[in-house]
Amino acid sequence: MNTLYRKIFNELSGDTAKHISSKICNHYQSFRSVGYHAATDYVLDEIKKIKNIGVRVTNYPLDGETERLKQKMPFACEPYSANLSIVSPLKTEMIL
């Protein structure tokens, strides 16, 4: 087993994974929103706690033009509000 994977495997357990997953889900994770950053920062901080593992973060502009892995990066967005509606069979507002 690769040394990096062995280090990570030795640090994580099912309980730890459940705890970390729960913490990540506390944040709204629309790509590049404030909640997305909070979730990724949490994961980064947890990884940094593992001894002898270096972490590097790469950021890309979300301008609709920059390409990575043969795909254009989407525009950044920050959701401020939303409405949930049923449109069929009868149009009904669920959350205002």
Unreliable runs = none
Query: Care to count the β-strands?
Result: 4
What is the average of the pLDDT values?
Answer: 78
Strand order of the largest sheet: 1-2
Count of helical regions: 3
Distance between the termini: 52 Å
The structural domain count equals: 1
Radius of gyration: 19 Å
Written account of the structure:
Helices cover 36% and strands 11% of the residues. With 96 residues, the protein is an alpha+beta fold. A two-stranded antiparallel ribbon has the order 1-2. It has a two-stranded antiparallel sheet with strand order 3-4. The longest helix has 15 residues, at 34-48. The termini are far apart.
Question: Could you list some keywords that capture this structure?
Answer:
96 residues; alpha+beta; two-stranded antiparallel ribbon; two-stranded antiparallel sheet; 11% strand
What is the topological layout?
Blueprint: H1 3-11, H2 14-24, H3 34-48, E1 67-68, E2 71-72, E3 84-86, E4 92-95
Summarize the structure.
With 96 residues, the chain is an alpha+beta fold. 36% of the residues lie in helices and 11% in strands. The chain has one domain (3-95).
